[in-house]
## 1
Amino acid sequence: GRPTTDRRMMFAHLFPAGLHLPPVAVAAAEDCPVVLTDEAAITADRNEELRVEPLVTEDALVAQGQPLLRLRANPTIALVAPMAGRVARIELKPGRRLTRLVLFREGEHRHDYPHGPQDETALRGLMQGAGLWRSLRSRPFGRMPDSGERPAAIFVMATDTRPGAPDPGTALKGREEDFAMGLDALQRLTAGQVWLCVGKGRDLPVPAGVRRVQCGPLHPQGLAGIQIHHLHPARLDAPVWDIHAEDVADLGGLLVTGLLAETRLVSVTGAALREPRLLRCQSGADLGGLGQGFVRPGPHRLFSGSALDGQQAHWLAPRDRQVTVLPGAAGADHRHWFGAALRRAARPMPVIPTAALEQALGGDIPAHALIRALASGDPEAAARLGALSLLEEDLALADYITGAVPRVSAQLRAVLQGIATEEAAA
């Protein structure tokens, strides 16, 4: 039978799973300037459709943290200004689907929220009105939770094994009390377990009731989906949330001061840079501004996210804490080298079972069976094998290892979308 959670946790450090990836240089934590780009934007996340109602008009002067948009389906959930500025443009697709709301930096005003102790109802209302609800991600499907959703468990990620990722511990330095308060608040949102996932040697305050689990140093052990599958798999009737540790500290700070944090810790890495950067910037920052003065001469591409799972973009995606700058013209293919061999093949080639592929999915997921289920579009088999706990980022390393076309991560999204459509129609 399936081993118990306690037993699996006990032996996890004896059998570290994952892969050693080529090292990516990250700037020293001691050199961490604040860089506020002149422009920033509120955008939809990957695979996210936001139908919104604007609360401001173009050319309005707004304070940092002020609600600018609200969701039409969940009017209590707001999207807030990442910085004080003037609304340059609001771009909506048909059906009031958000493309982007762009701000020009101007002024220094900050929006103040009620603060102090909060019961569950008040806490939900505060997080939804102040824009922090968006920092939560619900599995299956990887969407922002509905306003009334209650998770079976919450995973707080204080580790990240993606190449070039900033250390969450650096983001929390000096904010330990805010972090502990935020952790305690999260426990009011669920009757289930709050898990704190940390790297080796990381000592963080843990309130009573929060369970700490040490994650391995190899990728993908520092991803939420791998830990969720390992410790508390998500189900259609029992969603599981994850949230970055820095966002938890932001929640604690909001409860103490009534003010939202102005910046997040972001690493800027990649072969097109003269040297890597570690900085603090606003949410939705202009990626070009974050690399300005540090990019080598010649064409380059900007990715929001890591080299493994990032996407070419103009703006920092809502949950990303990495920017990757690679040489080459915009739109150039950056797939793994093995992809060229596959594309030259006379017919599509199957994914070859290897030990590396098993490790690329954390060593606890039946990788080959899952990939077969995704390739054949079998939602029942995929769900049984763990797909409901996973998102594209969790399979990005498998994409790199296999060079598969279409990508395994894209096949996962197609299966998840099919399941979501069936659930909506039921």
## 2
Amino acid sequence: MAVTPERVVFVTGYPGFIGKRLVRRLAEQGRGRERIFVLVQKKHLEAAAADLERMDGEPGGASVEIIEGDVEQMHLGLSGVEWKSLAAEVTDVWHLASVSRLEADRRQIRHVNVEGTRNIIELAQHARRLSRLNHFSSSYVSGDRVGVILEDELAMGQRFHNAYEESKYQAELLVRRVMGDLPATVYRPSIVVGDSRTGEIDRFEGPYAMAILLVASPVGVPLPLPGDALAPLNVVPVDFVVDAVTSIARNPSGAGRTVHVVDPSPLSARRVYEMIAARAGKKIPEVSIPARAFEAVMRLPGLERRARGHRVAL
């Protein structure tokens, strides 16, 4: 007779940047007593298999198996038998799947970020052995709010800068509505950057885009910073994020909570870019310029090509 593992973990958002590192940590913690299933879209199957092959060469850890599917689809794209089997066994759900590209189509963002979350909640509601639903949200659910923002605050009349922020807000609303019935934890990281030890990152977006423009700028004059450069630039290394969320997920008091995974003492944007500029032998002006003027600077020959695709984030 088959023995059901102590824990059955289900992860979406693999093989994404955070997802890969989270799965490795969960496998290490499992020590053979857990089964981990990762939901992977068809277009990412090859990359997922390659990453798991590298993981197989690492010592210890729980087994990790790929399930082909998609959070957008009904029952996550699984057959009825597969979905019911997963719901009967799963104890821990980690929902990371998300479209975070700011330039992505609004409809696609909503389908993945909102409807995908709704489908994950449906699975959790049918999971008889559920220990925890772990939902990755974002500190940007706060939209245009300023000042101190508490973890238990969400719907505060804020407006949003883009479809991504709004979709993450709507997804978190869905999770918070079921917190009375499900043991759920919401994590709100700020800007997730590379590993604090190796610097490894999967793509150059957000603060990286600005840093690359600063370092690679062919313009003879110093590149100015957009907007209020005294504002804090809150970034968190991916290894810190994984350490934090896996610790909270195993703490019973984490259920029913929303947690900000952020730097409590962030440097200002100016200080961050001064440090980058010093390493690159560049300078930045003493004053910043309005965001609209920065747009004009980004259209200068030599910068326009480099800034394309990053302008919305900047």
## 3
Amino acid sequence: PRTDDKALLKLAEGEIPTVLMGTLPDSGLHAVDVDNRLAARKAVEYLLNLGHKRIAFITNAALCYSSATERLQGYKDALQASGIPLEEGIIRYADFDPGSGLDCMKSLLDCGNKFTAVFVASDNVAMGVSSALKAAGLRIPNDISLVGFDDIPWAKYADPPLTTIHLPAQELARQACMTLIDLIQGIHVDEKILELDSHLIVRQSCRPL
């Protein structure tokens, strides 16, 4: 959901049963999600524990999407906890698709700011990031370590297989539908936001420094 989506806020005011996949702060709508902020923090902490200190970040989408804001905050949390200053110059904002990832990574490489790893808050965006790195003659993970988010089916078949945060997409959809059916049938659902577990899947796209 987008934080600027006025139609969603109107749904919250009415009596139409509605369940979001992803949270919309202060809307009062039922939602099913993962803790995007904590998951992103774990991804960045993994890179920090490998010895990386200059970690670039590319969002999954524009910051009007709640998941993008939350994942950016998790990145900031991990850096702050490690005493590493935030560098706005190595943050870019993608748009869900591989092409935006390609453009973001080209921009990062062109700006001249050095980094040894990049956390990309979407595997789909990471496809483009990977292509841009390879086109620039950089190897993953020898030159740049790469972590994604979502664990979509292609991630384990990437070259190299992508380390990423596993998001339980099918279970998110199932729980959202079950909650919606309950609401349609007039069953009271106590829990406004149901958070499912996510975890880091370590593959071969990162190396220690």
## 4
Amino acid sequence: VRSRRQRQMCIRDRFKNKITCCGCGACASICPKGAISMKPDNQGFIYPVIDSNLCVSCGACKKVCAYQNESSLHKPVQAYAAVNKAKEQLEKSASGGIFAAVATYFLENNGTVFGAALDFEDEHPIAHLIGIENIEQLERIQGSKYVQSSVEETYKQARRKLDEGKNVLFSGTPCQIAGLYGYLRKDYSNLWTIDVICHGVPNAKFFNDYLSVEAKKRGGVPIGYSFRDKKRGWGMNARLDLRRPSGEEKSIYIPARLTSYNTLFLDGDIYRENCYECPYAHKERVADMTIGDFWGIEREHPELLKQDVFDERKGISCILANTEKGVELCKKITDRIWLSESSYDKIARKNGQLSHPSAQSSRRKIIMELYEKAGYDGVEKWFHKKYRKQIIVHSIYNAIPRKVRVALKSIIKN
């Protein structure tokens, strides 16, 4: 039996390097003694903390860690451009609504679907993975969430459903899918996985503090948030739902480059440290299916945009079927989506994280240290000073009617 000091040394060795921890929580989920909990560091990023009084050095955490064990990766078998045929689902999705189509298939066939939700409790957002079993809950897990979601109990819940023989669809970031496979440690014929083309994840505390500052500045408290609202077309613009002191509820449309959080996310300056060394940001994928936005489709498939069903204003998805399971899944939903063959190269051209991780700039250290010392108010002040010219340019750009912007864009291309 190891001494407490020996166990503590083992723990430090295992988790001392932050670029080798994605915060998936597989270690906390598997620990038979409940000795591991996921706690935020000084900048809000979660890491495993081990109670040495409970730890018995069984090594279970090491066995399930995807960063300490090789994950099975797969080269894409087929590639597609795709759009959901259901108008309502398409409108509520960030891009082409493919996840909603796949999820609906599982829910209508008595399956369980896991995905990321952004729920609000006492005016505070909670980003977490949840499991659903009816179509009425689907809207909770639709749309992109550009913040790290907590896995909570979903790995355990998924295993219980799988062991019961139920079909399970589990969606998440590539590292969350790798974490699930590491936790399960066996193949299940009734499990299908979807990963997203992920740039990297900011932490929940950073996002929550941003939202509090933004809502206060606009005279209310946050009660809802959409990272990608399609009111003005397919893009990266957000919607903030507020409650005023009078009780009035109001939704505010936020152009992508006019707020600090959205800009710093798009510029890749606020992700976890491991995101910049991500082992899953490559052609070889960890899930059965990879989905994302088909950015650059106007150049890769101009012929598709001549068809009414492939409308840039409403969003167009890309699909990589990485395993035979993924290929079969595409076949199962052909009655629910418009599907057109493409290629990995065409999809990867404007989706860089299919080829390499996001690059870390010198700004990240400045921003995160500033956040640690001065909170989000400090980040907000720095942003408005540093990005003053950009804010002016994008304010003018967003004042131009969309139809005029589209016409100008077409003229520039030609």
